[in-house]
Design brief:
- The structure holds 3 protein chains of 3 kinds.
- Chain A is of the alpha/beta class.
- Chain A is built from 19 helices and 20 strands.
- Helix content of chain A is about 35%, strand content about 25%.
- In chain A, helix 6 runs parallel beside helix 7.
- In chain B, about 80% of the residues lie in helices and about 5% in strands.
- Chain B contains 9 helices and 2 strands.
- Chain B has a two-stranded antiparallel sheet with strand order 1-2.
- In chain B, helix 6 runs antiparallel to helix 8.
- The termini of chain B are far apart.
- A two-stranded antiparallel ribbon of chain C has the order 1-2.
- In chain C, helix 2 crosses helix 12, helix 3 packs across helix 5 and helix 5 packs parallel to helix 8.
- The radius of gyration of chain C is 25 Å and the shape is globular.
- Classes of the chains: A alpha/beta, B mainly alpha, C mainly alpha.
- The interface between A and C is large, with 90 and 42 residues.
């Protein structure tokens, strides 16, 4: 008998503009000891299935049809008390963000022992003993000491281990893990996934693993369910679905996952009818406004456009009037590199490695503690006059990470894109500004009407296109992309990366590309610098870095990349 | 000056004690039974409470209990007993009777304000991940609501309650005016009307000392409730 | 410091969108009405307004009181502050009853001077509302400017402004208002005190209330300042002042509007309280608080209407504004619903 059986489950949210169907007739089965992955892009309804099983749908969501059966008993129509009895005892969850999943005011011990005592009726001492064993099982060193600590005394990865211990403390038969590693660094992500895998085998627990990440699916799950817009389009054994997907959507989804092993020419497009070739409108760069980059363009030589010399950035972490009591954190330590004209230079590293700090210093958002940033050989921190400062501003632009906060929600898209043009007096008349804005929007693949709308009318990928259009509006020569696609779904990521590639070639841009995602870096960059704890530990040509990593940390990063060998390579165009 | 202060403190202590406890209980109740009939009624009533200026509450009470029903005295302190410099009305019937109306007046506004604050903070906390996780572990509602949620609610509530203790002083001014209670507040109002700077300054000094004390207590309470302030970051981070 | 947060934590409740148009990226742009007015009527805020009968009633009451007090000279049966129109014999006429000497009938009765209570309430609300609205506007301006500067500039400016705010916050606002009032009265020569009373009142209430706005704006500014659109503006080369005005300010106005609405109720109550304490509006140009103060004297002698009607007006006004503020807060913060 299956552990969990979901038959024809539909979840709907009645709203004022009609009913929204979040999940449409889904069938899923989970066996004991099995990890079933539910994969899909945002809005696919994968989290909703998890919440429906737990009976924790956010109002006004409701199960409209179908049944959920756990160990042979219907659980979808239970009343609140019966459901509460079921939660914990039979079903547990692992939450996404370990920083918010634990009550900050109680020790780990109190939270664990309370849960164990309630479910297993053990004495307090026995409960504490069991809690310590659990912490040991999830790999927390010194469990008898650490158990006395409060959540804020643990690091993110450790906290996620505590969360897993809490989820296991009730000895459930089913665990729902909703993006359990999304908030974690790659190295910790691998550890946590291994931990879950091991514990599941050992304790014969069924797991529903909800994620957007194909790598996680490929490495962890036995069975995979692919969802799109609330509908399950395909499911089956993981190697089979990933290796030879039958539904066009899964095929496209898998094809757009960046590969670390090969360099592709272009990412496969998910759209039916897929515009495989260049989707850029024909703008003659030589004659168009965007190509007239003024006289300061001295790209004839091979001298670096941007050069960073001995960059140090320190943040004061403890403020004090007395210099001796101040504490500093070093975000960047003696970082040096140069970026040649037309080159795409990448910086890769985990969170806290200082890669964004370097980008911010170059963009002028942060003052370095010491060291220099040079643009065309001139020090950025010492412009001779206001005119030069403005010229520098114009030459360096940036595309940001979070599409939901990088556009001012109170401005029309037209005004957002026009702002830099007006600020730097790059057009002679209102009409010209308007036509430039229209062309820029067209260049990034948005229709003219988009200009009249406010940002909230656009999806994440479209917003990122607007961000790019705004960055291009100063006619920059140097573009910084700080994790430009890490907040996007994989198919949208493919589109935006394709767009960046096209623009880079068409406009002959020099680029600094920052990411934590090595496969993406391999596709985008000519040279890559690896940062670790504020220091650039390795700098090499992309192909060389991937084939012969020199530094220990680079090798670790390489080994932690998800193994995507089982993924189908249909639709992936390998670069010549 | 000292004498008037003492009589003001007689007024403040009973009202603030009763206020804090009952407002906490009501706030938690209305947050947990958000859609219930009783909770909705309490919330509506509390909005009237917030919209009613203290002096109107006082006048209304006088009207009902002193003018119409004639149960309680409308003004003054009644008979007082001098306990070595501290005169108190607690020990006589008429003293206690004249305490009731001003104390209710003082308490009512505080009650509604803190109750509404507790409710909104509680609702905020009930939406957090750790509460959802506690529920998902199958902990009983009582443990989740009172064990986990309430303590987290207390942190912001302590701040505002501390500040509200301060505002009791201000409302004492008003209540004293309404009930013709011979406290410092009344003295202060007269000082303002006659632009009597020394009296104003002295009053301010006293108030300032009081506020420093209240803030100190609030900080100590913080320390007791929130472990993040107590423990230095452990190694292993 | 953390470099990135992955695309996480999006709400699990999806937004439904009815009408959609496709564009050439294959994605869709949500369509929306073109004009600002149409957008307003399409908005969730308007929708939640039409679904809340209590809020509609409150809005209507506020509107009625606003219009009535704005047109007081045309709506009121008499000018209660022109001694020529008053008849002392009309004094103490109960509501809806004929006066025993003159036979005149007044809706809400008259006071000791023979003033029509209805007219005094219209004029009184006019003053109360004027003081309330002006005080809120002044407090808002002071609070927004200081909050923006503190939040955006940070550093010593932030430290100084917020330290002052913290200290003031521990003092009850009515006490601050009393203090400012006392000090300003000390400065103004005695014979001018009544004429400038209304301005002193506005300033003292505003000065007692700006902290609310400053703290809210600062908090919101700190959040907005770190958002990427502000960084983008800096990278483009926009100067700090235009960034504050054009980018940050419009995005922090939501919470400011909520506290301004609730603040209006508080300011009206504060004005009434000060006037009631006898330190606000003089008896010659009474506000609602002054009227209540006058009415209290007649409570024991049985002329209840002199007190009751101004008090009721004050209560209805404050309650309606509070209801509006409550609704606005929930409507702008849908997660609390």
């Amino acid at each position: 008998m299956a552990l969990l059986e979901i038959n024809g489950l539909s979840v709907s949210y009645p709203g004022r503009k009609g009913e929204f169907i979040a999940v449409d007739h889904a069938d899923v089965t989970i066996e004991p000891g099995q990890i079933v992955g539910v994969v899909g892009e945002s809005g696919a309804g994968k989290s909703t299935i998890g919440n429906a099983i737990m009976g924790l749908l956010e109002p006004p969501g409701q199960i409209s049809t179908g049944s959920i059966t756990l160990k042979g008993a219907r659980i979808d129509a239970l009343d609140a008390d019966a459901m509460r009895g079921l939660r914990g005892r039979d079903i547990s969850i692992i939450m996404q963000d370990p920083l918010t999943a634990l009550n900050p005011l109680y020790t780990v011990e109190r939270q664990l022992v309370e849960t164990i005592e309630f479910h297993s009726k053990l004495s307090e001492n026995a409960g504490r003993q069991k809690a310590i064993e659990l912490l040991d099982a999830v790999g927390i060193p010194d469990p008898s000491v650490r158990i006395k600590h409060y959540p804020h005394q643990f690091s993110g990865g450790m906290r996620q281990r505590v969360v897993i211990a809490l989820a296991l403390s009730t000895e459930p038969s089913l665990i729902i893990a909703d993006e359990p590693t999304t908030a974690l660094d790659v190295s910790i992500q691998a550890q946590i996934l291994d931990l879950i895998k091991g514990l599941v085998r050992e304790r014969q627990v069924g797991v529903m693993l909800i994620t957007h990440d194909m790598g996680v699916i490929a490495e962890t799950t036995d069975h995979v369910v692919v969802m799109k817009d609330g509908v399950i389009v395909e499911q089956g054994l993981t190697p089979q679905v990933l290796g030879s997907p039958s539904h066009p959507y899964s095929r496209g989804l898998i094809a757009s996952v960046p590969r670390a092993d090969v360099r592709v020419h272009r990412f496969a497009s998910l759209q039916a009818g897929g515009k495989g070739g260049s989707s850029l409108p024909k703008i003659d760069v030589a004659t168009h406004w965007i190509g007239q980059v003024g006289a300061q363009n001295e790209t004839t030589s091979d001298a670096p456009v941007v050069e960073v010399r001995n960059l140090d950035v320190k943040f004061q972490t403890v403020r004090s009037l007395l210099p001796s009591k101040r504490r500093y954190m070093t975000a960047a330590n003696k970082v040096s590199f140069g970026i040649k004209p037309g080159e795409v230079f990448g910086i890769v590293g985990e969170s806290g490695s200082g890669k964004s700090t370097v980008a911010k210093v170059i963009a002028g958002l942060l003052e370095p503690s010491s060291g220099h940033v040079l643009l065309d050989g001139r020090d950025l921190s010492a412009p001779r006059d206001e005119v030069e400062r403005q010229v520098q501003r114009q030459a360096i632009q940036m595309v940001f990470q979070d599409p939901y906060s990088s556009l001012n929600p109170r401005m029309r898209v037209r005004d957002i894109v026009a702002e830099p043009i007006l600020l730097h007096n790059l057009a002679t008349s209102k009409d010209e500004v308007e036509s430039i804005v229209t062309d820029l929007l067209g260049l990034v693949g948005l229709p003219k009407e988009a200009g009249e709308r406010y940002p909230h009318a656009f999806s994440g990928g479209q917003r990122q296109r607007i961000s790019i259009a705004r960055a291009l509006a100063t006619r920059p020569r140097f573009l910084i992309c700080d994790e430009p696609t890490s907040a996007l779904d994989v198919s949208i990521q493919a589109q935006v990366l394709n767009l960046l590639k096209d623009l880079q070639e068409t406009l002959d841009l020099t680029m600094l590309f920052i990411s934590h995602d090595l496969p993406v870096m391999r596709q985008m960059c000519d040279r890559i610098g690896v940062m670790y704890h504020g220091t650039m530990v390795e700098l090499a040509e992309t192909e060389k870095l991937f084939t012969q990593p020199q530094h220990e940390h680079t090798q670790t990063l390489m080994s932690l990349m998800p193994k995507l060998d089982i993924l189908s390579s249909e639709g992936v165009e390998v670069a010549a | 000056m000292l004498k008037t202060c003492a009589s003001a403190s007689v007024l403040m202590i009973p009202s603030s004690c009763s206020t804090s406890t009952s407002s906490l209980a009501l706030g938690v109740y209305t947050a947990l039974r958000r859609k219930g009939f009783v909770a909705t009624t309490i919330m509506t009533a509390s909005l009237i409470g917030v919209s009613l200026p203290t002096f109107l509450i006082g006048i209304t009470l006088i009207w009902i209990f002193a003018v119409e029903l004639q149960w309680l005295p409308s003004n003054g302190r009644g008979e007082v007993i001098d306990l070595g410099g501290w005169t108190t009305g607690f020990l006589t019937d008429s003293g206690r009777a004249s305490l009731i109306l001003p104390a209710i007046t003082l308490g009512l506004y505080q009650l509604t304000l803190i109750m509404r604050l507790v409710r909104s903070e509680m609702l905020e906390v009930l939406r957090t991940d750790y509460i959802k996780f506690a529920r998902a572990r199958g902990l009983p509602a009582r443990a989740v609501n009172f064990g986990h949620a309430l303590k987290n609610t207390l942190i912001p509530v302590i701040t505002i309650t501390g500040l509200q203790l301060g505002s009791i002083v201000a409302f004492a001014i008003i209540t004293e005016t309404v009930f013709q209670w011979p406290g410092v507040g009344l003295m202060f109002i007269n000082a303002i009307n006659f632009v009597d700077i020394p009296v104003m300054a002295t009053y301010l000094m006293l108030i300032a000392v009081f506020f420093v004390l209240v803030n100190l207590i609030v900080d100590l309470l913080y320390f007791a409730v929130d472990p993040r302030l107590r423990v230095e970051r452990a190694p292993g981070k | 410091m953390s470099d990135e947060t992955l695309g996480s934590g999006q709400s699990s409740v999806p937004q439904s969108s009815a009408r959609q148009t496709a564009n050439d990226t294959g994605e869709v742009i949500r369509s929306e009405p073109a004009t600002a007015l149409a957008r307003f009527f399409d908005s969730d805020i308007w929708y939640s307004f039409t679904r809340s009968p209590v809020t509609i009633v409150a809005a209507l009451l506020v509107l009625i009181i606003l219009v009535a007090s704005a047109f007081a000279p045309w709506l009121s049966p008499q000018d209660p502050f022109n001694p020529a129109t008053l008849n002392l014999l009309d004094g103490f006429t109960p509501p809806m009853e004929a006066n025993q000497f003159t036979g005149s009938v007044y809706w809400l009765g008259t006071d000791d001077q023979g003033r029509d209570i209805f007219s005094t309430i219209l004029y009184g609300s006019r003053i109360s509302l004027f003081v309330g609205v002006s005080a809120v506007l002044l407090a808002m301006i002071i609070g927004i400017v200081l909050g923006l500067v503190a939040g955006y500039r940070g550093g010593w400016a932030d430290t100084i402004i917020m330290r002052i705010a913290d200290v003031q916050l521990t003092f009850p606002s009515i006490l601050i208002a009393l203090l400012v009032f006392g000090i300003v009265r000390g400065i103004v020569p005695p014979d001018m005190r009544n004429d400038v009373a209304i301005w002193i009142l506005i300033v003292s209430i505003a000065l007692s209330d700006w902290v609310q706005y400053a703290r809210t704006v600062r908090g919101a500014t700190l959040v907005e300042r770190n958002k990427e659109y502000v960084q983008a503006a800096r990278v483009i080369g926009v100067k700090p002042f235009p960034i504050m005005m054009k980018h940050v300010l419009p995005n922090v106005m939501g919470p400011v509007l909520v506290i301004a609405t609730i603040g209006l109720a508080l300011a009206i109550i504060a004005e009434a309280t000060l006037s009631f304490l006898g330190v606000g509006m003089p008896k010659t140009t009474p506000s609602l608080g002054t009227l209540i103060n006058t009415g209290q004297d007649f409570l024991f002698s049985g002329e209840w209407w002199i007190l009751l009607f101004p008090a009721l007006t004050l209560l209805i006004l404050a309650l309606s504004v509070n209801l509006l503020g409550d609704w606005l807060r929930d409507a702008l913060n849908p997660k609390l619903r």
